[in-house]
Amino acid sequence: MDRMLSADEIVRGLLAKEFSAAEVFRSSLERVRRMDPALSAMLSVTEEAGMAAARAVDECVARGEDPGPLAGVPVVLKDNMCYRAAPTTCGSRMLERWTPPYDAAVVTALEGAGAVILGKTNMDEFAMGGSTEYSAFGPASNPWDPDRVPGGSSGGSAVAVAAGYVPVALGSDTGGSIRQPASYCGVYGMKPTYGLVSRRGLVAFASSLDQIGPFARTAADLARMLSVIAAPDPGDGTSSRRARPEYGAAVASASLKGRKIAVVRELAGMKASLSPDVEGTLARVLDLCRREGAEIVEVSLPRSLEFGLPCYYILAPAEASSNLARFDGVRYGFSRKERTLKALYERTRGEGFGPEVKRRILTGTYVLSSGYYDAYYLTAQKVRQLMKEEFRKAFASCDLIALPTAPTPAFRKGELVDDPIQMYLADIFTLPVNLAGLPALSLNGGFTADARPLPVGVQLIAPQWGEEGLLSAAAVLERHLGPASVAPMAAVKGGDGR
Asked: Domain span at residue 160?
């Protein structure tokens, strides 16, 4: 089990009885034990529950029964998804010792498909951050260069896939929290259409923006994961009832012939903020699309690129301030004894929440206050509707839109942690997608020319329910670019090179 297998290869090998699910799980465990002290991608490892699940898959195979589309595939979960076998901390002291009494809908789906859950991954506290430096349990490291961030807030899940712990993982994306770490770590990351994947059991950050999605190293694995988790859920009022396709078919019949892929006119005026590596990688990917028969056209998204950032940082904190009000030290989670209720609230929330979460709660409370609601919150909601209409008009003349995932490759740890505005600007190209409720994915388009090369992501955006088009395009590009690489062990301090 030295070679890093894809989920597809694990399932086929398991059914052919070339190895067992228990062997695959033990291999993943060994890799975590060897590498995670340097990377800090994992907040918990569910060894006992995982081994029991792996053995159950092996018994199913031995009986000649169908073990499921993810049979024996090790998977990790971002630590804001409820799982009864481990604490769900959300990267916060507020929930440090809380183990949920139920599983998230996606966890039930994964286990029903034969997946084996390896553990929970590091993240920015309550999914608020873009570097995984805001975790209460310490920052995660980028496996391509441990002095750099892996992105966030789903940084731990991206690291786990890029470092080869697992072939696939789940994260959540509220403003780029899957796509940006996927870009920084050189793997695939997909944010599905809002409502495609159930949010039941996902600890809410901003309920109108949050969406669970997969990480993978191949387009086929991304499709396999999406087919499992994208199920209608009557327990989630925002879950769409529309029929879901078999997403693997989009990969199997992948083609770009006759399709229109758009570049965004306003990007030309943003070159000063773009790394030359990012600009060059986007151009190279567009050239590959052209060679595969796609027509490159131009669209305009002036409101989305100019107002997406301020719009998001009004609406998301507003929703966060409401959603996080439940963490008060009274009902569950972190608490401190005090003489009065006011003192209890102040001490519990003062010690339980980190600085970024406090900043966003205060911002959200401010924009929802009676004197500022119309000027800020209501205005941002109107702008959001204009952005949705802008994307609708753009897709009338194209099938997909191509943008950088982030303006630069992964930045160094500590570089932006005290400069929240610059940290927020790292998500300028991903935020509009969440505000419009659209699907998008990030793929690795190449590497920087540095002595220690860093991955550079390209983002593809589709109309609502356009996941098949994204997966098809990713599969075509993978023929040229290859699957995502496992980060070299030499880049990891303490790695043994195996």
From this structure: 7-300+392-491
